[in-house]
Amino acid sequence: VLRELARRSRLALVSNTIIPGAHHRRMLKRYGLLRWLERALWSADFGRRKPDPAMIHHVLDELGVAARNALFVGDKLRTDVLAAQRARVRSVHLRRRGTPCSSEAAPDFVIRDLRELPLLLQRIG
């Protein structure tokens, strides 16, 4: 999926974690995933966590991408979708089976599997 997305889109990772990013970077590289990402940012290194929109703003600034042209995909409503809303970025909730709905943050789009994302991007342009 990342390979397909990277052909048409600029990809970045914004993640809440207590473990420093160097560890995650090694893991992503080991599994061949890091090559598809232009930027990766972990809260342990940045000093702030989602739903604070600062991490999203930082990555968008680094990429030179306006919020109105971005799409944020996440599996957590309380952090990912809410951070996207606060950053004024459209959001996609990767809603896993059994994940409860919440009135805290309503995503712009919902997918059940990451493999649905390329089709969604084609649909929304």
Short synopsis of the structure:
It is built from six helices and five strands; from the N terminus they run αβαβααβαββα. It is of the alpha/beta class.
Structure description:
This protein is α/β, with parallel strands linked by helices. It is 39% helix and 16% strand. The strands form 2 sheets. The protein has a 3-stranded parallel β-sheet, with helices on one face. A two-stranded parallel sheet has the order 1-2. Strand 3, helix 5 and strand 4 form a beta-alpha-beta unit. The longest helix has 10 residues, at 21-30. The two termini are 17 Å apart.
Sequence-ordered SSE layout with sheet pairings:
Blueprint: H1 2-8, E1 12-15, H2 21-30, E2 39-42, H3 43-46, H4 54-63, E3 71-74, H5 77-86, E4 90-94, E5 109-111, H6 117-124
Keywords for this entry:
125 residues; two-stranded parallel ribbon; 6 helices
